[in-house]
Amino acid sequence: MFRGPLYVLAFAIYCYLVFHYLSLSDNGGGGDDDSRIPVAKGSPKLSSNAYFDPEPLAKDRTQIGKENATLVMLVRNFELKGALLSMRLLEDRFNRHYKYPWVFLNEVPFDDEFIEKTTLMASGETFYELIPPEDWFPPKHINIPKFKLNLEELYNEGVVYGGVESYHNMCHFNSGYFYRQKRLLNYEWYFRVEPDVQYLCDFQYDPFQLLRENNKLYGFIIAIHEYERTVISLWDAVQGFMEANPKLIHPHNAINFITTYESDLNKGHTVENLNSSYNLCHFWSNFEIGNLEFFRGEAYGKYFDYLDRYGGFYYERWGDAPVHTIGVSLLMDRDQIHHFEDIGYYHLPFMTCPKSQDVLTSKRCICSANGPDNVQINVGMEMEKFSCLARWWRYGSGKLFMNDVDYTSFT
Ligand SMILES: Nc1nc2c(ncn2[C@@H]2O[C@H](COP(=O)(O)OP(=O)(O)OP(=O)(O)O)[C@@H](O)[C@H]2O)c(=O)[nH]1
Ligand SMILES: [Mg+2]
C-alpha cells in the first residue's frame, strides 16, 4: 500500500542523477575547472549582484619570465576601473607572455571586489599589501600645523594637487618607501604601473631582461619639466647632500641633464627666472622600470634621508618624479639609464610613441589616445618644447640610432 510514494521517490532520485550526469558531461555546472567559468555553455546566469564561483582563480599562474621582477601598483579601491584598464593593456601587450606577478600597495585594506577583479585580470600571481602607517604618514620631524598652513597656501595658489594632503604622502612614499615594502624585498626589479594609463605597442621582449643584460638600472619613457612652485628648495637640499657626500656622486653622472639651460633643445623656449640651478627636467615616474637594489642601496638611502629632513615633501610639494630623477642622475652611471623609445605610452595628458615606421608596424602600435576634454591625441610629445628628451640625448646616455633589441622576437 506504500508503493506509490516509493515509486515517486525513486523516480525523483533517478531524474536528479540523470540531470546531474548530463550537466557534468555538458560542461554545465561542476566537474573540471573550465566548467565553472560563468560564460561556459550551460552555466547558470547569475543575478547582477552575485559573484561567481572563485574556481577560475585556479588558472595556471606559473611565471614564465626569467627575471626576479614584479609589476607594482600603488592604488586606491575607488580606482579599480582605471587599474583594470592599465592591467588589461599591459597584460595584452606584454605580461601574458611572461606572467610576472603583480604587487598592489595601499594604505587601507583592498576590498573584495578590487582583489577579485584584479586577480582575474592578471596572468601571474597577485599580492595585496597594506602599507604600514609609519611608511605612509608624515614622519615625526614634520611640523603638522606648518604642513597644514602650507597646504592651504599651495591650494590658494592653484598648485596642482598642492592642497591635497594624501598626495604629499603619496609622493613621500614613492620617493623613499615603496622599495622597502616587505613584499618587494623579494624582488630585484619593478615595473611601476598607474591606473588609467595606456600601453600602445606590443613589447615583444622582456624589459627586465633587457635592462639586466645591458647593465642598465633604470628605464623611463617620458622626460618633461616640473612645475617650479612645487620644488622651490629641492635643489638647495640636493646641493647640501652633494657637499656632505661627495663620494656618493657617480663620476660618470648625468648632472648636465638636470642643470643645463640652452633653449635650442626646447624649440627656443627658455625656462626663465629659475631661482636654482635645477632646470626642472624629470623622468615622468608614472612609468618606471628599475632596479630595486639601487633604491635600497646606501647612496640612494642617504640621499632620500637627507631630503626627507628638509621637509619639502610636506612644506612644498616635491614630487617623486624629480626626486627619483635627481637621484638616478647623480648616483648612477648615466649609461645605466635607459630610454624605452620603442614603447608607446599614454598618461593624461601626454602620449609618446616610437617614430620608426618599422617599429610602429611590427609592434602593432596604436598611437592615439583620448585626451582631456575628449580631444584626440595623435602626436607624441617627445619633441614638444616642454619635453626634456632632446636634453637627455645631448647630456644623458645619448640617442640610439640602432635597434638595441630584436623587436620581432619573444624570449
Ligand atoms: N593607496 C593610495 N594610492 C594613491 C593615493 N594617491 C595617489 N595614489 C596612487 O599613486 C599614483 C600617483 O597618483 P596620481 O593621482 O596618478 O598622481 P599623478 O600621476 O601625479 O596625477 P594624475 O594626473 O591625476 O594621474 C597612482 O598610482 C595613484 O593610484 C592615495 O592616497 N592612496
Ligand atoms: Mg597618475
TrEMBL record:
Pfam families: Glyco_transf_15 (PF01793). The active site is at E288. GO terms for molecular function: alpha-1,2-mannosyltransferase activity. GO terms for cellular component: Golgi apparatus; membrane. One of its GO terms (biological process) is cell wall mannoprotein biosynthetic process. It is found in: Membrane. InterPro entries: Glyco_trans_15 (IPR002685), Nucleotide-diphossugar_trans (IPR029044). PANTHER family: ALPHA-1,2 MANNOSYLTRANSFERASE KTR1 (PTHR31121), MANNOSYLTRANSFERASE KTR2-RELATED (PTHR31121:SF10). Belongs to the glycosyltransferase 15 family. This is Mannosyltransferase. It comes from Scheffersomyces spartinae.
